[in-house]
Write a structure and sequence with these properties.
Low-confidence stretches: none
Helix content: 10-25%
Number of helices: 2
Mean pLDDT: 78
Shape: elongated
Number of strands: 2
Radius of gyration: 28 Å
Oligomer: single chain
Largest sheet: 2 strands, antiparallel
Length: 90
């Protein structure tokens, strides 16, 4: 299609582009008919996801260790050489 043909395309249609498939015409879906439409920000602005608030929440989370679990790990410093490797400088 040329740009002129796309500009006058029927408003109820769209061009879908999916990986591995040639672009095709499709009918637009009316989101107001979806069963979970009330969860979208189009339905109510308080449903809008606030990324800044979410990130602030993550910064306040703390990791706690369960001491009742036998799975423990050690954290240490790693050098660039293995301990068992022979010294090649001799």
């Amino acid at each position: 299609m040329s740009q002129d043909e796309i500009a006058v395309m029927d408003g109820g249609k769209c061009i879908m582009q999916l990986r591995g498939v040639r672009p095709f015409f499709s009918d637009k879906f009316d989101i107001t008919k979806h069963s979970r439409y009330r969860e979208l920000s189009d339905y109510d602005q308080k449903n809008t996801f606030d990324i800044e608030d979410y990130v602030k929440h993550l910064q306040h989370m703390k990791v706690t260790l369960n001491t009742e679990v036998d799975d423990a790990f050690d954290c240490g410093e790693v050098s660039g050489q293995e301990e068992d490797s022979p010294d090649t400088t001799e």
